[in-house]
Here is the input.
Amino acid sequence: MSLKDILNPKTEQKINTAFIEERTEPFSQDELSDKWRKFAYSVKLKDLDLYSTLTVNEPVLKEGFLVQLAIFNQAQAVDVNNKKVELLHYLRNQLNNTKIDLELVIDKEAETKGVYTIKDKYEKLVEINPAVDLFRKKFDLHF
Here is the structure.
């Protein structure tokens, strides 16, 4: 909108409306998984955290073309939601279905199993190999 349009209210304004053709071609779980992996791979170099979030759990196709993804925490939800429009656009075009939607489900049990901080990672390593703690003590390392 220009300054001239604001000052002259009699000028007709054109309304720009986009017509979206509704497509509801059915697709399988395997087709969804294939396209999902391809999208995830396309963001791998730009956003490794998002790539990990998209690939750690397989998306599940639910009734009504709803795609459900289990995630571990709210931070992952934010990452996915930041790319949700792009992801849905890709899936809708690739699978020829405009009704596809995405639902994120936070898996509370998996959240507690996650290893996020340096201390958590260290404790997990010691659990796997107790010699790591001996190494830390021998060289007087601290976290």
